[in-house]
Amino acid sequence: MGDIRLTNLQVLNMFPCKKVGKTYNSALYASTFLSAKHKRLLLNCGCQVKEPSPVFEEASEIGIPGLCLFKNFVEKLEEQELLAAVDEQPWQALSKRRVQHYGYEFQYKIRNVDIMQNMGKLPKFTDCILKRISALPELITAEEVSMPLDQLTVNEYPPGVGLSPHIDTHSAFEGAIVCLSLAGPCLMEFRKYETETDSDASGLGHIGVCEDPESISSLNGQRNAKIQRCPIQCRPIFLPERSLLVLLGEARYRWHHYIPHHKVDFVNGRKVQRKERRVSFTFRKVRRGPCHCIFRSVCDSQMC
User: Fold this and answer.
1) Where do the Fe2OG dioxygenase domain residues begin and end (predicted)?
2) Both 134 and 33 in a single domain?
3) Which residues contact 79 (CB under 8 A, 6 or more apart)?
4) What would the pLDDT profile of 30-41 be if each residue is shown by its tens digit?
5) What is the domain count for the chain?
């Protein structure tokens, strides 16, 4: 049984079978990962094997208003220069990844920033990127002002480390969320849930594994209270290295975004190995007042 369990955990990319693995999760396993033998094993223990969902590779295909993807936003030489510059700065170690903060420190315990604690301007090595971002027509014509971007978080993800599903806290940032992927690609999944009023969708909590549905900390009520639910829509998109992802409007305020904790991503039949590291530059504009967006059920500024 131990060998079967290990084999299934490997082919399921660490999403264990209900009866084979030790932990519980929904058994919606993409057939990409499975041999015929392993499919039979899962079906024999009552698991449901589904065909893999398509992975979107263009923003125009995903059908989420406000989501933009610009491939090859920086050249390879620029990428190397940005990585060298950030590696000269001190890193802050989190449990599974390293981070750097500029402008304002993002405080993970409260999922917000302290606007009274300004750390100065964004680093000089980002000037050329910021200039190019500010010239994007999507930002210039956006309904909500995003410029100037005054907060930057740099994340370094080793292989197998992702990001829990969340929406960036409404009360912390306004306008666009802009993310530059360097050194390696990844898969990012956008999710909608059945009842956002039950969620900690504004970023004060996270989603974990708990039986079939996912366990989410509730924004209203106890911080540690858990509810269970499943996403009703999942739309994965592939982010190549050197690409720029821009989230505006609904994409920024309404949809959770999530990076699976994978070492290998499967993209429409292609096996894409995560590289030694992926470094993301996430630019934001700090909000100086409550959020008045139309997505009230996921807005921490408008929740009772």
Assistant:
1) 148-287
2) no
3) 182, 183, 241, 242
4) 444 455 555 555
5) 2
